[in-house]
Amino acid sequence: MRSLLVLPLLVALAAGATLDFEHYWTAQEMNEYIDELVRDFPTIATAVNVGTSTEGRPIRAVRVSKNNVANRPLVIVEAGLRAREWISPMSANYILHEIVEHYYEFEHILDNVNFLIVPLVNPDGYEFSRTTNRLWLKSRSVNGNGCFGVDLNRNFGHLWNTVGGSNDPCSDNFVGTAAFSAPETAALRNLIQANSANLALYLSIQSADQMVLYPFSHSATTNPANVAELRNLANSVVLTLMRQNGRVFTSGGAGLLQTPASGSSIDFVAGTVQPDLVFTLETGAGGNYGYDVPESQMAELLSETTYGFLTMAEYVANNK
């Protein structure tokens, strides 16, 4: 595998937009990038309309399939659930940059695996964090009494609202009024269910606890039946991540290494769809809070996260 670029990288798009991995893109720039990918690489990349956010923004995905072969094992990557974790959607876009624009470097993976990548599940919250409140976490649904938003990673339907969330509409961890009450999580659920037949691996990219986590989030003691396989692969990914820049990553059950919380995307997938492999990759940290990674550190973290992703992808290519 070639070395991924960690120096300033410019992606010149033919339509005139110039996107680089030195600055955080707007939601609109992410959409422009998707448009350019599917136009310039039609035999490998296809745009998918996932749904529409509360404020009417499109939620989009890219299906990556060499020669559009449908029946390979599928990897779904979801990013941007939480608004302030800007490095998460940028990581998903960098992964797309690698496996689509440099597809010839990953022939073995692409001969054996298809991908469905959703770079930004929460475009409303992301834009609000960019323009108004850097610390904003939730979506932007109107809850009444001057309160807005749902914590999308507490709104999925497996054991919803049983532990770790809040019923206070003003809380950062507001679980919503019902499972999948947020249009963003409902749209992602529909995408997952529509593609469940071939789903081999589900990956949620979040930031920035420097962890590789497997289900379940709601419990420190409940594990999937194949926990040994999950543990072994998580350990391999951690070793890959730590080899890049020396940051320390840990691995384990999500409910053990973090405060137990129900309603997460990985619990929904593991608890209902039940593919073999389900993970959260918590990226490297930076800035004052961990998730506010300075733009000067972006390229390094994007490369690091992509190496972790590729370790998972190669495992699927070789074993599923």
From TrEMBL:
Residue ranges of domain Peptidase M14 in the record: 23-316
Coiled coil residues, start to end: none
Cofactor(s) demanded: Zn(2+)
One of the Pfam families matching this protein, by short name: Peptidase_M14
A biological process term (GO) from this entry: proteolysis
Annotated signal peptide: 1-16
SUPFAM superfamilies the UniProt entry points to: Zn-dependent exopeptidases (SSF53187)
Keyword Metal-binding: yes
InterPro entries assigned to the protein according to its UniProt record, in alphabetical order: Peptidase_M14
Keywords: Carboxypeptidase, Hydrolase, Metal-binding, Metalloprotease, Protease, Signal, Zinc
Organism domain of life: Eukaryota
Active-site residues per Swiss-Prot or TrEMBL entry: E282 (proton donor/acceptor)
Name of the protein in question: Peptidase M14 domain-containing protein
Organism in which the protein naturally occurs: Anopheles quadriannulatus (Mosquito)
